[in-house]
Amino acid sequence: MQCATYGGGDQRVNGDFVRKETNSDYRNDESAWLIGKPLNVEATHSTREGTLTRSTGFDYDHATGALRNEVIEPGSSLSLNSEFEYDEYGNRTGADLSGQGV
After folding, report:
1. Would you say residue 7 has pLDDT above 80?
2. What order of strands is seen across the sheet that includes strand 34-47?
3. How high is the pLDDT of residue 100?
């Protein structure tokens, strides 16, 4: 499922117009009751100076739905990868960060 949201449309920031648009891809696994888990989120900020797009990818445990991995700017040399650890009760107990300079 794909969804596009527009974060309030045009806004004025310091006299300039800023437009924010967010596009998301979702995972829906009805058989496991895992509904609306974002897989990819892309946020675009536009001004008259130019456009900046940021993206984030997510991966989930197929049995529990817990977030296993988050990658900010996937495919980039400056990507930041977070891998999450959980205890037997599903509580997040740690995160391992990796990326250039981390």
Report:
1. no
2. 2-13, 16-29, 34-47, 50-60, 67-72, 80-86, 92-99
3. 87
Amino acid at 82: S
* Token pair recorded at residue 54: 């940021």
**92 burial via Cβ count (<10 Å: 0-12, 13-18, 19+):** exposed
CA distance 57 to 24: 10
Instruction: Give Cα 28 distance to the centre of its chain.
Output: 16
Amino acid at 20: K
Q: What's the pTM value of the predicted model, to 2 decimals? A: 0.78
The closest of 38, 11, 8, 37 to 23, measured between CA atoms, is: 38
pLDDT at 48 exceeding the cut of 90: no
> Per-residue pLDDT for 12 more than 70?
no
Q: What radius of gyration, in Å, describes the C-alpha atoms of the chain?
A: 17
